[in-house]
Task: structure prediction
Amino acid sequence: MIRIFSDEISNPKNFVVTLELVPGRESVGRSVDTLKGIARDAFGDGRISAVSITDNPGGNPSLSPDVLGSEIFKCGLDVIVHFTCRDMNRVGMESRALQLARMGMKNILALTGDYSGKGFGGQGKPVFDYDSVILTRLLKSLNKRLLTSGDPDLFFTGCAVSPFKTTEAETLAQYGKLDKKLGAGASFVITQLGYDVKKFRELISHLHQKRMNPPVMGSVYLLSPRSARAMNKGRVPGAHVADTLFDQVIKEWTHTRSGLKTAIDRAAKLGVILKGLGYRGIHIGGIHRSFKTVGAILDRMDEIEDSWEDFLTEFNMGMGNANTYYYFDKTPAPQKLPLPSRIKEKLTDHYPHFLLKTAHTLFFDKNARLAPVYRKLAEVLTKTNKTWLLKLILEDPMKKPLLSCQSCGDCAIQHLAFLCPESGCPKHTRNGACGGSRDGWCEVHTDKKCVWTRAYHRLKYCGLGHTLGQELVPPRMWELNKTSSWINFHLGKDHQG
Ligand code: SF4
Result:
């Protein structure tokens, strides 16, 4: 019987199981045959609603999920295609979406994506023209076109969330972005991988508090020493394995057979806990060789399902950081930074924030008293082809030292506590943090704070922490590249116009 993932996950009575497949860098050969074999067995087993196929994981080239997915789809198993924003601009992304629609593969997991890895000749150019929120909106708008053209089979878009964050800023940034993704049209949620049950509960409580009830699937993984090490060292963005768990996994795998048995048991225990907590399904990862292990996890889940609460203590080891922030705990007493850090924070964050905010109120508010004068000036400079003059003598000298301005011409600093998403975030995220930050540090530049963490601290300092990333910010207007953003704003040419 052909199972339809969107129907199954949308029915609250179902507990859905999906399986993640990770293609390699081959178009034929053993790795492809193995994945197709796993998919074939999953279909035969009958307990898997769909396989999800990753899109150049880790930013490294691999067989396209569209191609592999279409072969699996034709065999009768439903497919979720991972769709990232890293490798294509908006034109390529829309074209890819149309191609997927044409192929009938409309379950999409919309992701910002890991940062670029290495291809032939070295590191790839990171595109990130959209973020996952805008991609979700694109798919929603394509649905309208599908309906108009008489196709009732629409894109069914899901999103990811990483609840496994240790700091207040990252936690709130993740949930804020999740709200936006759901608002933009995401119909289901898949968590990143982690082992802190309190964080799994926190996500569900957040959704209840917001009166949102999307189907949420929790990630479950067959943890081997290799994958546990990568996650523990932060090499898998968004996934989290604490030191204690990592040490435990290493000990368990002293003998491969017992290691595998314990890994299956751990995956099954987490699976039943998630079911007990109200998750609508599990998303199984870490299966690279055969479907047998998945069958063993699901069999074990059947055996232990009723006693899920007995296993909670095993997943209560926290995030390995005594200061981990939990949204629904009583607010912990704010930790006072040492004096040099406080001075640095004021100089690098709070004072520039105050300065730019004041300048914005005076010069870049359509309701400012002098707004008509600025507009007139902008018109005169445009008519006389002198906009470059303003940019050269005023705009660049102010914005370059303060913001490392990239002259995108469509300034978005006001949406990010006056930090720049172009120069400050390697993925140029305009609608919230990606899932890859770790203890507040950037996934890509690990010696720099995530720009969204900095923005949160700036806003919190002014009592506005709750406003972080609330607005839906359209993608950058590339037609304005290298022009004066000040003039563009006053003439209503930029994204605010
Ligand atoms: S600055 Fe933050 S949102 Fe941007 S890439 Fe780094 S971790 Fe991700």
User: Anything to note?
Assistant: The CA atoms of residues 441 and 447 lie 7 Å apart. The longest strand covers residues 78-84. The chain has two domains: 5-315, 339-490. Residues 339-490 form one domain.
